[in-house]
């Protein structure tokens, strides 16, 4: 059996977990500091999603246990609030310094518009990284996001 692990980090719990909800009918398993979802794609292929919380630094040690062994790490940025978005950018910088797992950066679409602060603050990041739009109401958006991560897989 092939097992892949994808940690997902973000601030808005409901929005980041919406990725899993759009891909699976299964419930998430709730633990202190993280939530886990299992997605069976075939008889011998399973993906575990680890939804890690960025708000509580007491659980950052879980990142050290999960991210180094993962296929890739997904950061879901919240562009509805400048303070949260700046925290997202700080976390992205720290993840890039500390881990070698490929990093995918997604942002929650806000009614199809990108706020001015997002355009300005993300500019320096966009030179080195791609921001992938994620619509938490759209199943195709979640599938596209997952496919991007899976296509980075090196067998």
Describe this structure in words.
There is one protein chain. With 155 residues, this protein is of the alpha/beta class. The protein has a single domain (2-150), classed as P-loop containing nucleotide triphosphate hydrolases (Rossmann fold, 3-Layer(aba) Sandwich). The protein is built from five helices and seven strands. The protein has helices spanning 13-23, 61-66, 82-98, 116-126, 139-150, and strands spanning 2-10, 29-31, 34-42, 45-53, 73-77, 103-108, 131-134. The chain has a seven-stranded mixed beta sheet with strand order 2-3-4-1-5-6-7, with helices on both faces. It starts with a strand and ends in a 5-residue tail after the last helix.
List keywords for this structure.
Rossmann fold; 7 strands; seven-stranded mixed β-sheet; alpha/beta; globular; 155 residues; 5 helices
In terms of DSSP E residues, the strand content is 25-35%
**Average predicted confidence as pLDDT:** 85
Judged by helices, strands and strand pairing, the structural class is: alpha/beta
CATH topology: Rossmann fold
The helix fraction, in percent, is: 25-40%
| Shape annotation | globular
What are the low-pLDDT stretches, counting only 5+ consecutive residues below 50?
none
**Which architecture per CATH?**
3-Layer(aba) Sandwich
Radius of gyration: 15 Å
Helix count, DSSP H or I runs of 4 or more residues: 5
How many structural domains?
Answer: 1
Task: Tell me about the largest β-sheet.
Answer: 7 strands, mixed
Largest sheet: spatial strand order: 2-3-4-1-5-6-7
Determine the N-to-C terminus distance. Answer: 14 Å
Q: Which CATH C-level class is it? A: Alpha Beta
Oligomer: single chain
CATH homology-level superfamily: P-loop containing nucleotide triphosphate hydrolases
What's the β-strand tally?
Answer: 7
Secondary-structure element sequence?
A: EHEEEHEHEHEH
């Amino acid at each position: 059996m092939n097992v892949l692990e994808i940690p997902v980090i973000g601030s808005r719990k409901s929005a980041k977990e919406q990725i899993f909800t759009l891909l699976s009918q299964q419930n998430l398993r709730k633990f202190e500091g993280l939530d886990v979802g299992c997605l069976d794609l075939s008889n011998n292929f399973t993906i575990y999603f680890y939804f890690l919380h960025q708000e509580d630094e007491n659980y950052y040690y879980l990142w050290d246990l999960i991210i180094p062994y993962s296929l890739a790490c997904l950061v879901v940025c919240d562009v509805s609030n400048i303070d949260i978005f700046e925290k997202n950018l700080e976390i992205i910088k720290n993840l890039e310094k500390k881990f070698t797992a490929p990093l995918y950066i997604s942002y929650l679409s806000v009614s199809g518009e990108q706020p001015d602060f997002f355009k300005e603050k993300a500019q320096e990041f966009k030179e080195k990284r791609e921001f992938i739009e994620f619509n938490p109401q759209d199943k195709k958006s979640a599938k596209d996001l997952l496919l991007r991560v899976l296509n980075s897989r090196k067998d």
